[in-house]
Amino acid sequence: MAWAQELAEALLAHFEDPVAGGFFFTRHDHEALITRPKPGHDNATPSGNGVAAFALQRLGHVLGESRYLEASARCLRLFHADLTQQPVAYPTLLAVLDEALVPPRVVLLRGPAAGVREWSAALGPKLKARDLLLALPNGSSPPAALAKPEPGRPTAWICSGTACQAPVTDLATLAM
Length: 176
Fold this sequence. Notes:
Radius of gyration: 19 Å
Low-confidence stretches: none
Largest sheet: 4 strands, mixed
Order of helices and strands: HHHHHEHEEE
Shape: elongated
Helix content: 25-40%
Mean pLDDT: 92
């Protein structure tokens, strides 16, 4: 998670266009070019802007970090006209838009490692398409936004944004 945050910070510092939105293909300190491309359409691979916006948005939801969510939203606004005129050319950005409209539900598991593995295996098949399962056994060091106590038995929190429901300690009563 720390590495993902480092990458996100580097992306914002070195590639983002904070005024118009989106992400340049070259760093801000790159030698002067005739043009600095900021492509949004997918080719044989997903667009850099789509991948950057998706990664920042997902990380923003997991960590409750509004700067990441705002950068992703600025990217979507930049390509809004293109998305409406030629949606088939922008599947990665459409996935970002889809998740922006209906944010994921985050299921956070904490507890002894063996119990967390057992709960993860039991919950995996029950997850919906928009669910994220984060298994953080005791002893791991989660970022502050995911900091939950280290319980003596497996415990789950279901979160949306930065708000989490009361912890659940009985797998059978966990409503998925």
